[in-house]
Amino acid sequence: MNSRGGEIDHHLLVAVLVLTGFGLIMSFSAGGFMSGSSAKFSNDSLFFFKRELIRVALALVFFLVALNINYRKLRSLIVPFFVVMLGVMLLTLVLAQAVRGSRSWIMGIQPVEIARIALVLFLADLIDKKGDDFKKVKAGYIPGVAVVVLLAGIIALQPDFGSAMALALLGYTMLFLGGANLLAWAGGLGLASVAFVAAALTKQHVLGRLTGFWWGLTRPEELSALIESSSGHIKNTLVQTHQSLLGIGSGGFFGVGLGQSRQKFLFVSEAHTDFIFSIIGEEGGLLFAGIILLVFLVILWRGIKLSLQLSDRFESLTVLGLSCGIFIYAVINISVALGIFPITGLPLPFLSYGGSALLANAVSVGLILNISKHRGEKSGQTFIRKNNGVSDSRWRDGRSSLSWSGRSRRR
Which in 41, 125, 211, 235 has the greatest CB count within 10 A? Predict the structure, then answer.
């Protein structure tokens, strides 16, 4: 173990604390008007803030458990955990009440957020166990892509195409980084993309969102006229995009000031959840929006760096997958707010109001920090080059993967 052995990654911890603290502030700022002006929320302007505060406390408990758990002893439970999550997703599909057209919530929980962690752990475990056989199409790629397609397919049937797309993107990223046959990977990605788009276009609300997104992206000078002449999902998409951009644009460099947003007065729908970045851009300006972007880049950077410093392939891929999951959600959410991506309904990690995503992200970071304590350990025949912290990862050099011969030693 090197000199840092046993220490968590403090850069990542600070980054997450910054986001969580800022998320609490924005729950107060962005959600206050909506809750204070609605009997549904008891006209309590602190409704969202107080609930988010409780969720942060609960997330802290989950974070501490994930940080201190002996995950190596529990690795044998990864496959059963994934199977259980598939069952939960199917039950959600069958039993859940439709909310805004999607059956993705059951007992107040959005299981897809937990399924994201299960997918990362399952793929990291599969790729590690397959070893060099993972490069083979039949023995490695097909089993890996099958679980990605199965999980994304169930989520798409709910239908929650935004989450299905994000999880499929995460899964394919892990397959690529894990060393899947490149030709098979590219072909599978192309087929999956075509099938996904074809399925999505059969849904009226998805088609409306895509049409509204395309019009807003290609005809920005006609936005007001398009809003007046359109209806339904197309109009809703155009309005949300237009109001989001107005908020970000009116913030300038320094913003209009904390709590001074005008767009949160119901001009931007879901100001405290899906479009929280618009309110951040308006109240904090380019300065705060840039800081948020930078913090998410720090999370990705620390995930990559930690992954390179780990000698165990399972741990390396787990860290990479969990950090990529947070980053992918952030990029998609921010892109939607900027009008350069269709509306998906995905939350901004640690900033959007909501419990399921917060708990899942807290567990993800707890696991990453837990694993980070094992940086620099030798594993079997693999040797970590301590001076530069680089391992011969396949995803790094794009050619060959580690033998990872010591993977079974720790189970």
Answer: 125
Neighbouring CB atoms inside 10 A of 397's CB total 10
At 308 the pLDDT is: 93
CA torsion angle for 280, 281, 283, 284 (degrees, to 10)?
Answer: 90
Between CA 189 and CA 173 the distance in angstroms is 10
Let me know how many helices (H) and strands (E) the chain has, helices first.
Answer: 14, 0
For 241-267, b/e burial (b = at least 16 CB within 10 A) is bbbbbbbbebbeeebbeeeebebbeeb
Please state, in angstroms and rounded to a whole number, the distance separating the CA atoms of residues 399 and 177: 10
Nearest in space to 394 (alpha carbons), one of 173, 225, 180, 178 = 178
- Written as six digits, the tokens of 181 are 């046959």
Contact criterion met (CB below 8 Å) for 255 and 283: yes
According to the model, what pLDDT value does residue 165 have?
Answer: 94
CA–CA separation, 118 and 63 (whole Å): 16
Q: How far apart are CA 72 and CA 2, in angstroms?
A: 20
Q: Angle of helix 10-36 relative to helix 47-68, nearest 10 degrees? A: 160
Residues 350, 361: Cα–Cα separation, whole Å = 7
Contact 240, 269 (CB under 8 A): yes
Contact assessment for residue 141 and residue 184, using Cβ atoms and an 8 Å cutoff: yes
Distances (CA, A) of 366 to 63, 99, 309, 369: 5, 30, 18, 5
388, 24 Cβ separation under 8 angstroms:
no
Is it true that the peptide bond before 159 is cis, omega within 30 degrees of 0? Answer: yes
Residue 232, by phi and psi: left (phi above 0), alpha (psi -120 to 50) or beta? left
Spell out, as residue ranges, where the chain has pLDDT lower than 50.
Answer: 1-4, 380-393, 397-411
Which pLDDT score, from 0 to 100, does residue 222 have? 85
